[in-house]
Amino acid sequence: MKKLNIFILIIVLFSSCDQFEDDINVNPNAPSQASGTQLIANAMLYLPGLSSSPSAQFMSQYLSETQYVNASLYPQSSTSFYGLYQGPLMNLETVLNADDLSGNEGPIPNQLAVASILKSYFTWHITDRWGDVPYTEALQGADDFTPAYDTQESIYNDLLSVLTAADNQIVAGSISNDIIYNGDMSKWSKLANTIRMLMALRLSEVNPGLAQQEFTAAMQAGVMESNDDNLVFKHLADANNQNYWFSQIDLQGRDWWALSETLVEKMKPYGDPRLYVYGDPNRTDGDYTGLLFGDTEDFDTDKYALLGSAIHQQDAPVYLVTYAQALFAMAEAAKLGWISGGDIEAENYYNMAIENSMMQWNADVSGLDAFMMQADIAYDPARAIEQIATQRWIHLFMHGYEGWAEYRRTGYPDNMVSPGGADVPNRQIYIEAEQFNNTDNYNEAVQRQFGGSESLYGKVWWDAN
Prior knowledge:
Layout: H1 2-24, H2 36-44, H3 54-59, E1 63-65, H4 82-97, H5 108-130, E2 133-134, E3 149-150, H6 152-169, H7 185-202, H8 208-221, E4 231-233, H9 244-250, E5 257-259, H10 261-265, H11 275-278, E6 318-321, H12 323-336, H13 342-360, H14 368-372, H15 384-395, H16 400-410, H17 433-437, H18 439-450
Antiparallel strand pairs: 1-5, 2-3, 4-6
Helix pairs in contact: 2-4, 2-5, 4-5, 5-6, 5-7, 6-7, 7-8, 7-12, 12-13, 12-15, 13-15, 15-16
């Protein structure tokens, strides 16, 4: 009996020690698992990366490289989408598949709606850069390391449905940890419909019937109504959440990026006040001189207008989906006859778009009326699509991938250059690892889209130009 009691005592002691060790190794102030809104907030932190990179600006020829020019000459090299899948998309997928979301952080339908809207936005960005990409079989972790590539057409069709469902899912109440809209679900609703509307316009050349149907439905559901509704990532004057360009220019002292001649040619002759925000005057004579995109001979940065101080402040915001962008889309839709009003309404939306673009960028609007009356700026029914597209491209400054997508769709602006004989690419090349790690699906996607050999100049599905 004594031996049995001793044995029981030993078991209890060891069990108590194990429990004691577990207790002292747990921080009661640090959650062992991220909550739904924390995962959503972490995904939001990736939003600036959809815009803030030199390669994005090169695709739209907003900036010219002053030092390492070869990086801007459209080399036939691959680009990885892995970070977007492994980071924000995986976080959002975790939320969408969770069965234990807490209503303490806001209504669960709203958490799911925001996760769906953000997932749709990231996915739209990915497919517009690469074309067909993993979608329905993606984000399964160890359950599937080799997902099939969905066609861009099927991805678009599904995202349009997802955005519609997300908007309809929203209920009364806010969510916590919302670093974009501070839990205001009315703004998330307008964002969902605005993204849907912009996606629909992207289909104007490849499927105009569906494009008009989705465009008008999204517009009727309620899109952005002012610059207060903008999807904008607000950086802080803090090293932990600072603007990318501040880290490159102010901290590293790099004068590597000048305004491109392509951009300046469309702004300077008209005294466009946004030019004085986009760039700083050159150091030689205080003028705004653009650098020829891809110039490999002149590296005197004092001669050119470098990226504007307002753009690379530590807390400078990044604009992603904007009210002015929505207005430009509605101007084009009116001109195309998708919505009522014809040229009268198209002109109204066009003028409002330019005005709100100026205000978004904190440009001096004291001379706005005179600016709008200039021959090439004033709405001309015969050149309306060109004017709308060109002014939209100017507005999208520093959102290079979006400006590039609109250029591919419309062909404007009409002064893009071909550095070293290389035209503006039509897409980006899949990361090379896919050839070895996801061989069959990669080969099938390349064969389906490009006949077996991919390059920068194979076209994505909606690019009918």
